């Protein structure tokens, strides 16, 4: 058996022998995070390569290491390459969603004519035409569900079981296979089975496989939404920067703080270069209306900067000599020369992108617990089924073999992991999906699971408690003239939290007086103002 192994950023997309240690020669890796995927265990994660060591960080759901020394200063992935890689990943996610959606549709269409009559039979036999209960008809409908729709589950579950590393796919594959084979046997030799054990389980096969696929579809859509968020962040990076030649007298005077006038505004004094060629210490010219390329500090000029994509604040920030500038924010008014202080993955924007990307690779503790249980549970179920069959074939009534078969298969069917295999991933994906539609980004499955222990809720201000736009009716004569209107329902939501004994805190990138006014208006307990995005808790 061979397994698909993919590390897209390294151009690795190959088939490797399953359950064997295989060494691969990789090129020297630039520092950064590399998404990887294992086709056997359906594991996705991030391989982290540090800039000055050969270490690799072990993610929550997988392990990888390169064993390659990474020299400091190795060039990192360019913005264009990062966007291209993310677009390729997005296309793969769309293909996965289309394929899984097709499997769900087929499974639903073929399962309903079997499942609905079985449920109606529990109400009244007169409600169901006899031909709908024909086991041969049910077999014809469910066989494609078992072998076509269930193929992604069986392709992973059975090899994992064979190599003694069973997971949730193994549990589903084992239970549905037992139910299907038993039902097929009834079609041929029902008279050999004991009375009361002649009902097929075709509807269980269809329902379990279809619901597992629904869970995968929801999970794929959730990953697609997060992928779109990463793409939108990457697109904020400008592609070109206006750089001053550091060897010119003007650039030397600017660096020394001795320059006067605005000669640097002359386009002839600067040249356009790709942003990935900019280094720390370079001098860049940013003109009104342009997006700031990288993080830096103002050397000359003044400007009003829209930092809403970083701080969430709708009020323009005034930036003068010596004050910091954040990459990807917009220079609304004014012109400046800045000295680059951070490039590549050290910038604020790159750190935010990395935070979102790492969230995609997390797995809820309960999901990891379910997988650990599966490794013990599957062998235990098989032993229990064999032991049950052995007891019945030894001490049971005649026909002993038929009774032993029925009881052994019953153990496997009952053990089919509806709770572990379906409820756990479905609850996580349903909760994150509902949160996303209501503007709540859950950064990790662990954070969602631990929400039951919440005693303090931390809010952002702009766009969360407030509308996020300047109120045209504000009193401009007051110091806090940029009044940001409180959202409808904010007071009621915070009051409900306080009534439940939960402490409320507001973190804001805005000035203290503005943040405190909003907090007093809605009833927030604690206010912490002028906080950068990367310093805020992320779950």
UniProtKB/TrEMBL annotation:
It is a multi-pass membrane protein. One of its GO terms (molecular function) is ATP hydrolysis activity. SUPFAM superfamilies: Calcium ATPase, transduction domain A, Calcium ATPase, transmembrane domain M, HAD-like. The chain crosses the membrane at residues 103-124, 136-158, 170-189, 201-218, 376-395, 401-423. Keywords: Membrane, Metal-binding, Translocase, Transmembrane, Transmembrane helix. One of its GO terms (biological process) is copper ion homeostasis. Its main location: membrane. Residues 1-24, 53-74 are annotated as: Disordered. It is found in: Cell membrane. It comes from the Bacteria. Residues 269-356 form the P-type ATPase A domain. One of its GO terms (cellular component) is plasma membrane. PANTHER family: ATP7, ISOFORM B, P-TYPE CU(+) TRANSPORTER. Belongs to the cation transport ATPase (P-type) (TC 3.A.3) family. Type IB subfamily. This is Copper-transporting ATPase. It comes from Bifidobacterium bifidum LMG 13195. The lineage of its organism: Bacteria, Bacillati, Actinomycetota, Actinomycetes, Bifidobacteriales.
């Amino acid at each position: 058996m061979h397994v698909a192994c993919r590390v897209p950023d390294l151009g690795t997309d190959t088939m490797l022998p399953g359950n064997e240690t295989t060494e691969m020669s990789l090129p020297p890796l630039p520092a950064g995070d590399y998404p990887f995927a294992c086709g056997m265990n359906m594991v996705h994660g991030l391989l982290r390569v540090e800039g000055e060591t050969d270490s690799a960080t072990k993610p929550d759901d997988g392990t990888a290491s390169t064993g390659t020394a990474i020299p400091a200063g190795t060039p990192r992935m360019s913005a264009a390459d990062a966007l291209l890689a993310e677009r390729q990943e997005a296309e793969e996610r769309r293909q996965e969603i289309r394929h899984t959606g097709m499997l769900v549709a087929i499974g639903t269409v073929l399962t309903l004519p079997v499942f609905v009559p079985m449920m109606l039979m529990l109400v009244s036999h007169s409600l169901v035409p006899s031909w709908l209960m024909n086991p041969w008809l049910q077999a014809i409908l469910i066989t494609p569900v078992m072998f076509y729709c269930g193929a992604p589950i069986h392709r992973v579950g059975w090899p994992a079981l064979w190599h003694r590393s069973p997971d949730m796919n193994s549990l589903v594959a084992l239970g549905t296979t037992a139910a299907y084979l038993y039902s097929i046997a009834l079609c041929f030799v029902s008279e050999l089975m004991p009375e009361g054990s002649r009902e097929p389980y075709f509807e269980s096969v269809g329902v379990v496989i279809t619901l597992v696929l629904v869970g995968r579809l929801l999970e794929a859509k959730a990953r697609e939404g997060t992928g779109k968020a990463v793409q939108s962040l990457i697109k904020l990076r400008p592609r070109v920067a206006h750089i001053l030649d550091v060897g010119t007298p003007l650039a030397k005077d600017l660096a020394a703080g001795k320059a006067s006038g605005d000669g640097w505004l002359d386009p002839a004094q600067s040249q356009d270069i790709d942003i990935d060629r900019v280094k720390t210490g370079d001098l860049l010219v940013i003109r009104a209306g342009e997006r700031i390329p990288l993080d830096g500090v103002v050397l000359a000029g003044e400007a009003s900067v829209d930092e809403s994509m970083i701080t969430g604040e709708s009020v323009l920030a005034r930036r003068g000599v010596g004050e910091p500038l954040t990459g990807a924010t917009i220079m609304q008014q004014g012109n400046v020369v800045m000295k680059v202080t951070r490039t590549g993955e050290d910038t604020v924007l790159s750190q935010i992108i990395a935070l979102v990307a790492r969230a995609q690779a997390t797995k809820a503790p309960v999901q990891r617990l379910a997988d650990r249980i599966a490794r013990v549970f599957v062998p235990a179920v098989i032993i229990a089924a064999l032991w049950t069959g052995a007891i019945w074939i030894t001490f049971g009534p005649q026909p002993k073999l038929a009774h032993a078969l029925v009881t052994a298969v019953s153990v496997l069917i009952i053990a089919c992991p509806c709770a572990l295999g379906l409820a756990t991933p479905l609850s996580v994906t349903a909760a994150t999906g509902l949160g996303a539609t209501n503007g709540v980004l859950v950064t990790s499955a662990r954070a969602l699971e631990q929400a039951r222990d919440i005693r303090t809720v931390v809010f952002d201000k702009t766009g969360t408690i407030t509308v996020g736009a300047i109120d045209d009716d504000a009193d401009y004569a007051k110091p806090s003239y940029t009044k940001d209107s409180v959202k409808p329902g904010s007071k009621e939501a915070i009051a409900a939290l306080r009534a439940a004994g939960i402490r409320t805190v507001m973190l804001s990138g805005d000035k203290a007086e503005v943040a405190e006014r909003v907090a007093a208006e809605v009833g927030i307990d604690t206010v912490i103002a002028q906080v950068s995005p990367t310093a805020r808790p992320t779950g």
